[in-house]
């Protein structure tokens, strides 16, 4: 397979919903019986997006930004108001029956496993639905079951599983037919750290081994940092950033933050005043330097401060992705 094959191609995709509003008062309620007032809201507002085979892309944004609506259109659950979608060479809505055999979907809040029967019975039913041969199932699922450590859970009914156990089984269920494309919507929500690490490790492995393309929406930005080189940031139905995560980190935050811990109390007058440094006091002996500049300015500042004051500790703080994204939303900055 060509490594640069486009798995998802979206052009000017739009989804509108009608929102009804009630008129005030009794007369308003009476008029509402005959004619309704409504306004049209665009949940997804003319977005264009291309994802290539083997990419792991983080699709992020605040609640109501349009992430779930996009995923529902990409998986064929919703029909777009306008624009075009081609996923795995098909129109997800029009060629639904054939299309669903080429994708795997895990929604953190919804289950594809049958609640009252053993996990392996669910797997068996899904194997039939997806028309997977015994040989393919054995070769592929043996590895999946072992890596996700769900062997001991196969005889248990789904309702007896903890959330972490169920999510690992959900992930395995989505991969029974070894799809080239996996949609993950909040796959680690409510899970403990060890289970999250297990799931991340597994996703990396299937991406490397099968070149599985993964589109991940999550509020847990450590998932994105661990898995995705590329992020697509959505705000009010529009893409405000599409590019490398490290580029977002570099662009979105001015310079670095250096934390100085002094041996005794320090006042701002004791610190070097320069236009590229904004000082912020944490406590009597700790100051933060927010630096608008490159590594050279950082090292110059550290050497100046260290020469003039007795230092207990110096630390360069990495600014988290969460902080960056919060900043983008607060400042409303669209990054190119």
What is the topology?
Layout: E1 6-21, H1 25-34, E2 37-52, E3 56-60, H2 67-74, E4 82-87, H3 96-99, E5 103-107, H4 119-129, H5 134-147, H6 163-174, E6 181-185, H7 193-210, E7 213-217, H8 221-227, E8 230-235, E9 238-244, H9 245-252, E10 256-262, E11 277-283, E12 286-291, H10 295-308, E13 311-317, H11 321-331
Parallel strand pairs: 3-7, 3-8, 5-6, 6-7
Antiparallel strand pairs: 1-2, 1-4, 8-9, 10-12, 10-13, 11-12
Helix pairs in contact: 9-11
Instruction: State the helical fraction.
Output: 25-40%
Main sheet: strand order: 5-6-7-3-8-9
- Principal-axis shape: globular
Strand content: 25-35%
The domain count comes to: 2
Total number of strands = 13
What is the CATH T-level topology of the largest domain? Rossmann fold
Number of helices: 11
Q: What structural class do you assign from the helix and strand content?
A: alpha/beta
Mean pLDDT figure: 87
From the alpha carbons, calculate the radius of gyration and give it in angstroms.
25 Å
Low-confidence blocks of residues: none
Q: Could you state the CATH homologous superfamily of the largest domain?
A: P-loop containing nucleotide triphosphate hydrolases
The main pleated sheet reads as: 6 strands, mixed
């Amino acid at each position: 397979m060509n490594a640069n094959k486009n798995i998802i191609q979206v052009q000017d995709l739009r989804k509108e919903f009608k929102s009804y509003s009630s008129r005030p008062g009794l007369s308003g309620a009476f008029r509402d019986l005959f004619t309704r007032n409504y306004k049209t809201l665009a949940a997804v507002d003319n977005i264009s997006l291309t994802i290539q085979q083997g990419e792991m892309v983080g699709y992020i944004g605040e609640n109501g930004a349009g992430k779930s609506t996009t995923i529902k259109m990409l998986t064929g659950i919703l029909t777009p108001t306008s624009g075009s979608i081609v996923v795995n060479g098909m129109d997800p809505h029009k060629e639904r029956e054939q299309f669903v055999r080429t994708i795997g979907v895990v929604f953190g809040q919804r289950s594809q496993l049958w609640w009252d029967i053993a996990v392996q019975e669910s797997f068996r039913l899904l194997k039939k639905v997806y028309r997977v041969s015994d040989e393919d199932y054995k070769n592929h699922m043996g590895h999946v079951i072992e890596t996700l450590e769900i062997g001991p859970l196969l005889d248990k009914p789904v309702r007896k599983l903890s959330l972490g156990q169920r999510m690992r089984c959900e992930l395995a269920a989505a991969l029974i037919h070894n799809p080239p494309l996996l949609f993950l919507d909040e796959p680690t929500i409510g899970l403990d750290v060890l289970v999250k690490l297990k799931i991340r490790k597994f996703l990396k492995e299937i991406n490397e081994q099968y070149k599985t393309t993964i589109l991940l929406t999550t509020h847990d930005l450590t998932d994105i940092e661990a898995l995705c080189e590329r992020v697509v940031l959505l705000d009010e139905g529009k893409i405000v950033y599409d590019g490398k995560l490290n580029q977002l980190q570099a662009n979105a935050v001015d310079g670095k933050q250096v934390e100085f811990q002094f041996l005794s109390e320090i006042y701002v007058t004791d610190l070097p005043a320069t236009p590229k440094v904004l000082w912020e006091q944490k406590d009597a002996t700790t100051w933060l330097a927010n630096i608008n500049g490159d590594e050279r300015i950082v090292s110059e500042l550290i050497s100046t401060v260290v020469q003039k004051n007795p230092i207990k500790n110096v630390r360069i703080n990495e600014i988290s992705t969460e902080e960056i994204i919060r900043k983008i939303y607060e400042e409303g900055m669209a990054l190119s």
